[in-house]
Structures
1.
Amino acid sequence: MAGTIRGIRTFDIRFPTSRELDGSDAMNPDPDYSASYVVIDTDAPDEVEGHGFAFTIGRGNDVQTAAIKALEPALIGRDLQHTLDDLGGMWRELVHDSQLRWLGPEKGVVHMAIAAVINALWDLKAKRAGKPLWQLLAELTPEQLVDLVDFRYLSDALTPDEALDILRRAEPGRAARAAELCEGGYPAYTTTPGWLGYSDEKLRRLCREAVDLGFRQLKLKVGADLADDVRRMRIAREEVGPDIRIAVDANQRWDVGTAIDWIRELAPFDPWWVEEPTSPDDVLGHAAIAQAIAPVRVATGEHVANRVVFKQLLQANALSYLQLDAARVAGVNENVAILLLAAKFGVPVCPHAGGVGLCELVQHLAMFDFVAVSGSMEDRVIEYVDHLHEHFVDPVTIRGGNYLAPDRPGFSAQLRPETLVEYAYPDGPVWTSNGRGRMHE
Amino acid sequence: MAGTIRGIRTFDIRFPTSRELDGSDAMNPDPDYSASYVVIDTDAPDEVEGHGFAFTIGRGNDVQTAAIKALEPALIGRDLQHTLDDLGGMWRELVHDSQLRWLGPEKGVVHMAIAAVINALWDLKAKRAGKPLWQLLAELTPEQLVDLVDFRYLSDALTPDEALDILRRAEPGRAARAAELCEGGYPAYTTTPGWLGYSDEKLRRLCREAVDLGFRQLKLKVGADLADDVRRMRIAREEVGPDIRIAVDANQRWDVGTAIDWIRELAPFDPWWVEEPTSPDDVLGHAAIAQAIAPVRVATGEHVANRVVFKQLLQANALSYLQLDAARVAGVNENVAILLLAAKFGVPVCPHAGGVGLCELVQHLAMFDFVAVSGSMEDRVIEYVDHLHEHFVDPVTIRGGNYLAPDRPGFSAQLRPETLVEYAYPDGPVWTSNGRGRMHE
């Protein structure tokens, strides 16, 4: 089918979540969950659009949106089929733009803008193929998958040949695992009970409800006050018993020494992992913490800027669980690289989700990993937070503590048209009524 | 003197340097050197303005400028004297903004925007004090200097007490070293001969001219083609003899293994250091390269995102020379932290310069380091490139291969008013005449 990319439309979408303290943690006391949203328009007769976004937490969502718009000249007028047939080439062209890369390189606002655009192109490709993204990816050949990956800066840890070997080993079992996935779904864990802004009573009630809903792991935010954390951890452990895993998440609050001391105080309550104990840039710091707090495990990744930092975290034995993010590294292609790195090092991937639409995106990546890369769900869980799903055209479905495999074509990235109007910042009705929006700037 | 900050003005300034291949290297073939420029306006009776900028190389300078403008709400209406008296507090407030930090954290476009604003505030403070910035900093007490630094994520490598010790040890010699600096200047090295786009003949002539001008170190760009690099390195060595240091700069072109192989081919020509051999995020990669290529030394820093990555490069023995950048990390305050880290680990700081105005800025930081931190010029050189100085109100002065100490008040950051008009993008006359500007987008 002939067609070219006509252009992109961008939207600054913000949800006033800070009004309710949903999403509050030790580093992010007042987030307004936001999407810097992009739609790719084509002139193909099927009129299919690609949708994608970067997730931010409020201020700066306009800067993020400007960065996405700055990528439009690289897209406009491109042959659509050729572009979708070579998304590895498209990724390299965007990431290695000789002038834009100066603004990173491969990190921050520009890299997240590339994530939004690359993910929107994958959404478009999957919709045109009539398949959910996880299935589209899991049906590519090992050679096609390796071609999506830029091995620059990775070859000391993972070569294209090693990546091919990993994918070929998983190939014979693909069909059986896809059937298993469609039958039973993929395990989730919930962060819903654990926000810092909640009362002890609410924590207790939400822990109980989580277990009743079938979750086998939940997560508490920690890091603001040690005595509070010990009390909340005790309450949660009392409430769920010894068999439910309780992870804790410090959201980068600590220095290396503080992290070690703090986690030792929580250790009697058997935390499953400690997440983001310190700066996401501190590979050596994570390694030191991991060594000191074992057998408690370290997890990190939602703020890891790119595959080069993940490579080092794996090389340094700095994490036990790798938490990829769908829209911080540069989209699907870079996450295929990260899944391959994790498989090479034998580290389970447990994606970061929550925010706006991150659950919708990462489910596809974890399911692709199960079917075609690691071939395992053992010790693997996808984060689940019950925020804002109602704004999506194809929201996640959780049943019995599991994500059900999406079956609609695309990347589940599309916001409802009315949401794009109502939550537009700063002029949508949610932000202008009562003048409340202005208070948040 | 009473006054408040009234607001900031931003300017997208671009120089069409790609037309001449000045500044071409293996990763940046066609840069248009650009400044995302900011002026801080106050209502104080002295009408002094603060000037600062982020340096970019063309596309995306508009996004960078939007990020600077996004910081205005944090500045507007602030008491001027109180703000300038507590730039440590101002830095923390900007860097740890609970919503904006999501876009980094502490890296990329938002962090560089903070650099521009923080540096502009220092320019303002130094102008009001009637002193060049290096001198203003070098006259602060050790306690005042430590108060500028955010030790978050650093305490496993450098504590406030250790920083105080370093500064107190340097205190008795400050006056003598300041006099020495004003007398003799600070050694420079030149990158002018070594751009990839130049012919062998031009390389030869520029090497000769550099030595004639008094430079004792020069630098060649490498990394695009090994045979070319061997030939160019041979030419340069022939031309300058054995006593002039020749550094090479790969601008992140290589993977770890390639870097090691390539540098071994250049080793017969005695390269002084190899700069940016691989990804600036790859601490472990730099450490592996450093170990493999010794006694050739590794230098890096111009793209190191923040103090946490510098901390690790030092902890891992991954570099022999630390090349701080004035406007990539978050300005003066973060560079004080980096100078202290380098002093703690005994690694010489040789700042990155060139671009637009980076020579003007970094001279102040290196001179402050000499007077009040490391107390030494041994093995230390400031990069010098002879581009675009004519656009500055207070350009650097090089004599006999040395930077002369600036004596005008401020941070030497101010562009000439006519430059702000002529090089404005996309509507200034440089970009609209002949329609040439549009060709570069």
2.
Amino acid sequence: MLNTMSKIRGQVKTTGYPQTEGLLGDCMLKYGKELGEESAFGNALIEVGESMKRMAEVKDSLDINVKQTFIDPLQLLQDKDLKEIGHHLRKLEGRRLDYDYKKKRVGKIPEEEIRQAIEKFEESKELAERSMFNFLENDVEQVSQLAVFVEAALDYHRQSTQILQELQKKLAIRITYASNIPKREYLSKPVIVTSSSDLNGVSSSTSKIAVSYDFQLHLASSLDIASPND
Amino acid sequence: MLNTMSKIRGQVKTTGYPQTEGLLGDCMLKYGKELGEESAFGNALIEVGESMKRMAEVKDSLDINVKQTFIDPLQLLQDKDLKEIGHHLRKLEGRRLDYDYKKKRVGKIPEEEIRQAIEKFEESKELAERSMFNFLENDVEQVSQLAVFVEAALDYHRQSTQILQELQKKLAIRITYASNIPKREYLSKPVIVTSSSDLNGVSSSTSKIAVSYDFQLHLASSLDIASPND
């Protein structure tokens, strides 16, 4: 099981994260094409599918953007600043223990040795405190990082809104157009059966129905992919 | 492993789908509160966390909306219209086989029996063709369903955009305010050590650093939850 963080960090080569929108788009494009050009539903599926693919790209950009402008700096903070503070704190603890031990042996060890222990302890305490103080004092930097994250998310939602607005207009036109086409009536063709090849007329419609059915099954499973926790 | 579709269909009781935004929001709220009111980063985390929680609610609404206005009608189509067509097609196949069989026995069975087989076959063919014709002719209905789905998604992205716009403004104000506070300088307090309780001054900062470190670890794992496929 490979961790996404590793992928995002570039430790694992990936051919793009399978965004929900992209999977849904693939499914819509596939069955839209199979339904063919005459089918209003088929054409609409292709249109929605293409928009879904564009939305998946926008989501990919969000992932890359957040990785570079938010996760990476956060990772650096953890690997550098916080690690350094941890180092100072461990050193401080060692020197405190050393001083504690020597303090109890007053009279048994040279005064100079105890004085040195205090000095070293004080030095470490100042270093640790200063590094923590500076880290906490600079927290406006981290607020700015949060703002960068929020901007990336905002950008993603804005672009998705735009794609969907265009799509909505296109679909409205398509519905108006399709609604204005006069309804055809079903004309029964009597069977003059001589061989089973006469049934071809039926099989053309049948395959479209099968495509429509398949689409619905796949759509259900595509939508299902959005749920990581079952 | 419970299927989300079952959950969405209401077959399994659920206390709300754990949206990525909600998990991230919980994490931010938790550590924002731990960092405390003095911390600009802590307050910003709470602000972003609250917005993330609101965005999770908007996503919940999207899920419910899509389920009711898109998945349910699609499911009905599959369970009713397509099932009916399937039934007609199976009946047609049976009658075709019956006719085929009787056709080969011309002369051996009564003429009347063959005529009846043709009639039944024709009747089934017309029923199957008519049901498929009507289904395909009405595909503008399915385009309208797609448009409803697109509208739900559009609504979701619009609302998220609005939440993030408000958040962006608040964060900008917070950053300006925090940047204008004059920087405090670190004042070293010499150690007059008598007991280990004198080290309390250090531990207050330490716990904030620990919170910050924990937040970053949890944030990394929260962001990771968005990836179902590793």
